[in-house]
Amino acid sequence: MMRILVISSTPWSSENSFGNTFNNIFSGFGDEIEVYNIFCSNEAPDNSIVKEYFQIAPKNLLNKLFGKSTQVGVRFSNQFVEREFVKTANEKKVFNFARKHRFQVMFWARDLLWKIVRWKSESLVDFIVENKIDLIFTPIYYSSYMNDLLQFVAKIAKVPVWGYISDDCYTLKLLNFSPLFWIDRFWKRHKVRKSIDICEKLYVISEIQKQEYETIFHKECKILTKAKDFSQEAPIWTCGSGNFSFVFAGNIGDDRWKSLALIADAIAKLNKENLLCEMHIYTSTPLTRAMRHSLMLPGTTLHGAVTYQELQGIQCNADIQIHVEGLSLKARLLVHQSFSTKLVDLFALGKCIFVVGPRDVASVSHLLNNDAAVVATTANEVYQKLKWLLGHPNQIVEYGRKAYECGKKYHNFASMHAMLKTDFERFMDRAKQRANCNP
């Protein structure tokens, strides 16, 4: 039995990106592993993998600061009963305001809170020690407090650390004219470096990230993404010659909404030419006035977020799936190493994917290199590529097949699971050898 500790800023839930991905990574191991989770959120975890949690909630840190509570960390099992995770109306307003505006001072206030309040509790130490952790397998975050937490936990556990990086949290390949941003970047990349330095093994999410981080940190990196079962033949979908439906689901921040607006504008024009089509956007991103004005065009409908299960049904009923990245230089640099885990879900559907994004972004580059989607890499191409696609329904079916084949080649669960299983087995063999040498 191998005991693994995961440290996360968000709750481990199938309804968020972290939980969805880590459910996928750790599924299939059965009784071979036990998973424990320290998370730093007011919200509720929801999964069947984690055996026991330790929660350090921002709400409790604030209560401690103002003398309302003495308990910062809470320990509970996956069979917890009647724990309260519901946000109040005021908490929702604050959370949505922070997500919409993302002022630098808000992030510094959060870091300051973690510096002031004593979160290094005896109960946290007991959680780490009593569960006899063998390995820390954790996302590497771009935040001071999460890196401080990792350093503390690693010091107490005295076990190897394996890091997983899914966004560029270190390089200086970014565009921002705020001096506050760069002060923050230089300070936090110092923290990130300390965390990566203690990692025995590094997993990354894209080939671009692998190349850049191996050069920077002089550590071998392995690509690890969400994976699906591609053991069957590609699904056979049919497509008519009218009333085409498009679906996009996910975060529309970081200029993604501007790329969606290009599609919405093209759809409005195509509908005037009797190439009837409609786009449905499902997102939890707080919408600004500019977003609503640009997206609420004829043929496009905005929806709130839906559950993962509901979304799968919606996507199966659509003809074409949408993936977008921002086209601006700032947006391009921000996600140049990133690969969206949602793409793996789209590959498994075997449905045509229409993409708007720069060709040098990892996810778009992957799709172009494998001809796995119809891609518009500039604003001018959006209308042209859409018109061509809707005028050739046979290509909608063909690109669905190509998407599935890309998933089968690069994101097959059997291959990804075998790689991780081999790494775990080698780790445990070395641990046994060390134990035999030091009886």
Write the layout of secondary structure elements.
Layout: E1 2-8, H1 17-26, E2 33-39, E3 50-56, H2 58-65, E4 73-77, H3 89-101, H4 104-116, H5 122-130, E5 135-139, H6 144-157, E6 161-165, H7 179-197, E7 199-204, H8 207-217, E8 221-223, E9 244-249, H9 256-272, E10 277-282, H10 289-295, E11 300-303, H11 308-316, E12 320-324, H12 329-334, H13 342-349, E13 352-356, H14 362-369, E14 374-376, H15 379-390, H16 393-410, H17 413-437
Parallel strand pairs: 1-2, 1-5, 2-3, 5-6, 6-7, 7-8, 9-10, 9-12, 10-11, 12-13, 13-14
Antiparallel strand pairs: 3-4
Helix pairs in contact: 2-4, 6-7, 9-15, 13-16
Account of the protein in words:
This protein has 439 residues and is α/β, with parallel strands linked by helices. It folds into 2 domains: 2-227 and 414-437, Glycogen Phosphorylase B (Rossmann fold, 3-Layer(aba) Sandwich); 244-410, 3-Layer(aba) Sandwich (Rossmann fold), CATH 3.40.50.2000. It contains 17 helices and 14 strands. The strands form 2 sheets. Strands 4-3-2-1-5-6-7-8 form an 8-stranded mixed β-sheet. A 6-stranded parallel β-sheet has the order 11-10-9-12-13-14, sandwiched between helices. Strand 1, helix 1 (17-26) and strand 2 (33-39) form a beta-alpha-beta unit. The model has no long low-confidence stretch (mean pLDDT 91).
